[in-house]
Design goal:
Number of strands: 11
CATH architecture of the largest domain: Roll
Number of helices: 5
Order of helices and strands: HEEEEEHEEEHEEHEH
CATH class of the largest domain: Alpha Beta
Largest sheet: 6 strands, mixed
Oligomer: single chain
Strand content: 15-25%
Helix content: 25-40%
CATH superfamily of the largest domain: Outer membrane lipoprotein wza domain like
Structural class: alpha+beta
Radius of gyration: 24 Å
Number of domains: 3
Distance between the termini: 14 Å
Length: about 240
């Protein structure tokens, strides 16, 4: 069962990491207490964020801007500036440098008003897989609830959280949510970060049902041109 889950996770992560380096971390055993990968606590600007750019001594230059899909913003007197990926302080320093050629000793503040990337992705054996708005703080169980809850085929002691670190690597941790649900180990229900991926795998029996359906009920009759009545209970 665990070999199958690790294999499925490997395929899943390969699709996610086309432009990133993946850290080959051993999946935490179910009995271990998971430690969420460390992330920088300072917010980094994302495409779609809405920001105020304020000039203390030149209010005529004040603007409210939205970070474009290409990650840039447009301001008066200077060329387009790449904002995505920077912290507000880093963008502020860049703006001061660029505006110093236009005005004397610019004093600028960057205030992020709305955040577009505060969300997580929940996939696998949940009712409504997809993006879930991240309300801070939100745990894994809360994100699954927002995705409509789990299906009967969910493997709760093998839930995977995939996270991208500041150096653009992917790390994963395995959680046993059964222990969180019965209050024996609430540390398994970790707090999520923006852009985390929660993956709920199938149980072994559920995967066997899929195999039976695809390769016995459908493939064999299609090849032989006959229909078989198959009692799948003998498989287990």
């Amino acid at each position: 069962m665990k070999a199958f889950c690790v294999l499925k996770l490997g395929i899943f992560m390969m699709a996610l990491s086309a432009c990133a380096t993946t850290v080959i971390n051993p999946i935490l055993p179910p009995a271990a207490t998971p430690s969420p990968p460390a992330l920088s606590t300072e917010y980094r600007i994302q495409s779609g964020d809405q920001m105020d750019v304020k000039f203390f001594y030149n209010p005529e230059l004040n603007e409210q801007v939205i970070v474009r899909p290409d990650g840039r913003i447009s301001l008066q007197l200077v060329n387009d500036i790449m904002a995505a990926g920077l912290t507000p302080q880093q963008l502020m320093d860049q703006l001061k440098n660029k505006y110093s050629a236009e005005i004397s000793k610019p004093e600028i503040a960057v205030i992020v008003r709305t955040f577009s990337a505060q969300r997580v992705f929940v996939d696998g054996e949940v009712t409504k897989a997809g993006l879930v708005p991240l309300t801070d703080p939100m745990t894994v169980l809360q994100s699954i609830s927002q995705a409509g809850g789990i299906k009967d085929t969910a493997l709760l002691d093998g839930v995977i959280v995939i996270r991208r670190t500041p150096d653009n690597k992917l790390v994963a941790m395995q959680l046993n949510l059964k222990k969180a649900l019965d209050n024996t180990d609430m540390s398994q229900d970790v707090t999520l970060k923006p852009n985390d991926i929660v993956y709920v795998p199938k149980t072994t029996i559920a995967n066997m049902d899929v195999w039976v359906d695809q390769y016995i009920r459908r493939l064999i009759p299609a090849i032989l041109g006959v229909t078989y009545g198959i009692n799948t209970s003998i498989i287990y």
